[in-house]
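Note to self: user wants both folds in one dump. Writing first protein now.
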Amino acid sequence: MAHAAEVSGFDGAFIPWEVGGDEPLIIAAALARETRNLVFVPEIQPASATPVYLAKMAVTFQRFARNRFAWKLDLELDSAVRRAHGDFLEGEEWFARAEEYIHVAKGTWTTHPFDFRGRFYDVERGGLAGPLSGLPLPRIYTSGRSDRVLQAADKLADVHLLGPGTVEDVLSQA
């Protein structure tokens, strides 16, 4: 499918996170070896790894795939699914952590040494050095239509995707 997408002129492939599915980041890495130009956009769950570890995994992907990595932050995962995966934060606390998560991941990626004291994460003299430093940040995508998702997307995303809907639905969110 990745070959077909690339040959057809697509420039990116979104790999969703699904409850019973494979890990999107690993799928993206496997597919990146089979293509030359396709940018891979695996969906990331903010509680699945520390933001420091996310930065390290993502920059490693960037290095080996020649800057063909972006990530999509899932801001609308059902709370029952999150709880089944060990994430019990709800509501405003969950969004606050997601925002801090991306802030720490970006800081780890771009600053060495990186120090941060937050509500959910503390980093002391972190950051990426050596061959992991200096690569451009991946583009961050979000999606969703709720007012709170749109507020978070405004702070976090380079690109916000709107799902299917009527013209009126889309314009009301603009």
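First done. Writing the second protein, which came from a different request thread.
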Amino acid sequence: LAPLHEALSKNAWPNRDLLLVPLGSGTAMAAQGARLGRGSSVAVHVTPHAERPKEVWTFISGAWNRLHGRPGGERALHTDLSLALPKAALPASEAATEPMPLQPMGGAAARHDVPPGRSAPLPMPVPGATRWQSYVDRCMVIKGSTACCVFDLHSMKPLAHTGHGPAPERLAQQGSILLTQAADAARALGLGSSRPEASFGIGGHHLLLMPVSCHPGVAVFLVIQASTGNPSLARMQLQRLEAPR
């Protein structure tokens, strides 16, 4: 919190209230909050310890309403978390599915009548049949990219690679381990079992790991130079890249 304290005391800080919600020891946070507001015009408020997201939201919304919103006013916030946010849509990976029609071997695909109002199901990816090199080449156009690898999560084998730096085998192995650990952590925290993604900085680089849409078990590992790339922008651009069929 030292850089924040310096900014509050030296710069023309626009906000006049700061709310700290301790998820751990409230006593330690109270002492930090007192030091943080010292010498500044910002009023630092420390709430009691919060264990669950709805408790955190109660403190945040309550503080906002005391400062800005009249009860029932247009700027007032619901203090009930379930009413404050729209119900999240079911992730595509957890949506109900139905069996896909089998395609005949060694010949043209059989035609199937599609009921009105429904789209035809996408064909399942065939291992080894997808050309991934053009995809990783397009990923490398993202500003700051130094290396890109598409890999199979189960076998930990690279499917395509471009750029310089870590070897493709190393990227595939470590990427599989990181995403597996992220999925295990999500399940342990009760946050669902949808396919995870990861983004973090190490030294002068940002590492971005994402599953490839329409290709279960396939992920992309993008290494970005911190001095020239923006990880948030790179993530958005990577999501917009169409994966090969």
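Dump finished. Worth passing along: The chain has a mean pLDDT of 79.
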